[in-house]
Specification:
Structural class: alpha/beta
Number of domains: 4
CATH class of the largest domain: Alpha Beta
CATH superfamily of the largest domain: P-loop containing nucleotide triphosphate hydrolases
Distance between the termini: 55 Å
Shape: elongated
Number of strands: 24
Number of helices: 29
Helix content: 40-55%
């Protein structure tokens, strides 16, 4: 194990199961002396121990486990050629040789780049067993056979196989083939090598997951399923079969990978639908979520947890340019309940819904192999995020949050030539970010997140203590498994297309009262919150002619009740907490009293740290003035500029009225003016679709324009 260093709870090191550059492996010891392994790059415990030549049982203190590495294994090129029935000279021509490694003979297999330069080396140490392969130190995983890529491009097609020996067999028959060094090693960026070539993937038994991985990145991929009794083409060759004839026959029967992926997806969705049936049949799944959060022992107002749940659900939405998931910062004093709130919500999500990054290098997200599409990225602490407004890594994170793709360019020095080249890292989203902190983030990142303050008032603490007491006496229920299955069901069908037909009157009403420049991003997040709730309630929502879910005023009303007060910050520039502080300072000054930190905390029932944070925010905005200029001395507070008028989100009724004003003269009468807004939408949509052009009906025009995402 390389680059081991001590941490508070154990050790960190490079994971031996993948090309790890950032010490992703966490090693710890439990109270009963069990060895605990966790790779934050996604490797399983089995993969980690196998790469070390150990077994899982070696992690347990049973007295009989092996404490030493297995004896050296040995394999020569001659032995390998004999077993695989291949010409020794051919293997040598392809660069293979025998060498000594760790006291044993191994087969050295060089990997070449498209230009022929050696870029990696893999050793074959044995014919069988979990530790029969290992990579040379410093080598990174690549496709095998890239130096022959131009030959294969001229052939017009190529066979993708697992491992090098299948490539050798194919090449022996002049068949174009590239090797994937293990079914779990496929990388999306390899697809760029293969553009313009008809590709066939040989699917070995129990390797359907490889089809799903590769097929997701290569649209024209076709799949050859290994016939009965033949694991791979090396085995067919050893059996004496005509490999070219076999491949030719199987190519004609090959199935498009897209069809296999869709069948797998349909079957998976059906299974998840069965598991989540109680929620699919619910009148309102959002109420089920609220009940589950309370049942887990969440004390007091559930608004922070419910907003967090909706924010995490926004990962599933289809994103167009300008739209944005609900990236979330949970802020508050230490021990205010930020992590507890987040963990309660994560308990209602399947593991595949999020990618969690514990404390570590800020560049972990950039370099790890995690798929970020329609996933939540959880940074346990904001300190793990790349710091600095002009930091390239921070810029890459911001691109992921706003442009729905992480792109990061880094210069790499070639160890052979000494020349530098640019390595471009591209990781598609969309992804949504969640993190926690005791303070706000840097300006550029802060404008891209929805800040949710976890209150630490006496009432909140009292409710939390009561919930803990209930949990102690056993009044906490188990997590509702059907809710977890429901989120998996939604995840399997991402992206979800949702249309908010009242978006324009909503935007116009907000524009008349907003002052903060970040309103555009906050408006995009507001729409995403509405859409997320519509997705949760999709069984009770209609779809338009394009198959998109139609959000309703009822959905907006729920969001209005949840986040209306929070949006006062965006619209008026001042939070309710800051208003309380300023009003209390004014009250104390009028009485002739001095507004100290302790006095404000006592009168408002807040933590001193919370008071300090809000006072400084009010001073920065000019609503309070500190006349004490000496550093380290208590405040001398005076009243500054008047607070802005209290403005919030438009009420659901205001939106209905604004919409109806647009409908005057467009076929909307006093009789149907009282109808729910959503009841007016389908008729207008249908009329607009039939006409095919913008009509004289403003309602139809608005619906059509919005649905066209213009």
């Amino acid at each position: 194990i390389q680059d081991v260093r001590r941490t508070n709870g154990g050790w960190q090191a490079r994971c031996p199961a993948h090309e790890d550059e950032h010490a992703s492996l966490s090693i710890a010891k439990s109270g009963d002396d069990k060895i605990l392994l966790k790779c934050f790059g996604g490797c399983s415990v089995e993969e980690i121990v196998h790469s070390l030549g150990l077994r899982v049982r070696d992690l347990f203190p049973d007295g009989n486990r092996h404490t030493t590495a297995p004896p050296p294994l040995g394999l020569t090129l001659e032995e390998l050629a004999k077993v695989k029935k291949l010409q020794l000279d051919s293997l040598k021509n392809w660069g293979c040789s025998t060498q000594k490694l760790g006291g044993a003979r191994v087969v050295r297999i060089p990997y070449g780049a498209p230009d022929g330069e050696e870029i990696a080396v893999r050793y074959r140490c044995a014919l069988s067993g979990p530790n029969r392969f290992r990579w040379k130190k410093g080598s990174k995983v690549h496709l095998y056979g890239l130096w022959r890529l131009e030959e294969f491009r001229k052939a017009g097609w190529c066979l993708l196989v697992e491992g090098e020996s299948d490539c050798w067999t194919a090449w022996s028959y002049d068949l174009p083939a590239l090797g994937i060094p293990g079914k779990s090693t496929w990388k999306a960026e390899w697809s760029s090598y293969l553009e313009g070539i008809d590709l066939y993937l040989w699917q070995e038994p129990d390797a359907q997951d490889l089809v799903l991985r590769v097929g997701r990145d290569i649209s024209n991929l076709k799949v050859i399923v290994a016939p009965e009794g033949v694991k791979d083409i090396s085995e067919a060759h050893i059996q004496g079969q005509s490999v070219p004839a076999l491949i030719d026959s199987l190519k004609r029967k090959a199935t498009p990978a897209s069809k296999i992926i869709q069948l797998h997806k349909d079957h998976h969705i059906q299974e998840l639908a069965k598991q989540s049936q109680p929620i699919l049949g619910s009148q309102d799944p959002f109420e089920d979520v609220k009940e589950a959060i309370l049942a887990m022992g969440y004390g007091g107002d559930t608004t922070p947890a419910l907003v967090t749940y909706l924010a995490l659900t926004s990962r599933l939405l289809s994103m167009r340019p300008g739209s944005m998931p609900v990236h979330l910062l949970l802020t508050g004093q230490a021990s205010a309940g930020k992590s507890f709130t987040l963990n309660c919500v994560l308990n209602l999500l399947p593991e595949e819904a999020y990618h969690e990054i514990a404390a570590g290098s800020p560049r972990v997200l950039i370099y790890d192999d995690a798929d970020l599409r329609h996933k939540a990225v959880i940074f346990g602490e904001a300190d793990s995020l790349p710091a600095g407004e002009d930091n390239p890594a921070a810029s890459a994170i911001r691109n992921l949050l706003q442009d729905h793709e992480l792109h990061y360019d880094v210069t790499v020095k070639d160890k052979h030539t000494g020349e530098y080249s640019v390595k471009r890292i591209r990781k598609p989203g969309p992804s949504m970010l969640v993190t926690t902190s005791t303070r706000r983030l840097g300006y550029q990142l802060d404008t891209r997140v929805f800040t949710l303050e976890i209150e630490d008032s006496r009432e909140k603490i009292r409710a939390a203590l009561a919930a803990q007491a209930q949990a102690e006496v056993g009044n906490v229920k188990q997590v509702n498994e059907s809710l977890i299955a429901y989120q998996a069901y939604l995840q399997a069908q991402a992206p979800w297309e949702v249309v908010v037909p009242f978006a324009e009157p909503l935007s116009e009403l907000i524009a008349t009262r907003a002052t903060a420049p970040r309103i555009l991003r906050d408006f995009a997040r507001l729409l995403s919150l509405v859409k997320s709730l519509t997705v949760l309630r999709h069984m009770n929502r209609e779809r338009d002619s394009k198959g998109r879910l139609i959000a309703t005023i009822e959905d907006y009303e729920t969001i209005f009740e949840l986040v209306g007060p929070m949006y006062e910050t965006t619209i008026s520039g001042v939070t309710e907490g800051i208003r309380q502080i300023v009003h209390e300072v004014v009250h104390l000054l009028k009485k002739g009293a001095r507004p100290t930190q302790g006095e404000l905390a006592k009168r408002l029932g807040l933590n001193r740290g919370t008071v300090n944070r809000r006072v400084h925010a009010a001073i920065r905005q000019g609503w309070l003035v500190n006349t004490e200029n000496r550093k380290g001395y208590p405040w001398q507070l005076e009243v500054g500029e008047p607070l802005p008028e209290k403005e919030g989100l438009p009420t659901p009724q205001e939106i209905k009225e604004a919409w109806c004003e647009r409908c005057d003269g467009a076929g909307v009468t006093e009789r149907n003016r009282s109808l729910p807004l959503e009841d007016l939408i389908p008729d207008a949509t249908e009329r607009s679709e039939e006409e095919g052009i913008l009509s004289d009906n403003p309602l139809a025009d608005q619906v059509k324009l919005y649905q066209g995402e213009l």
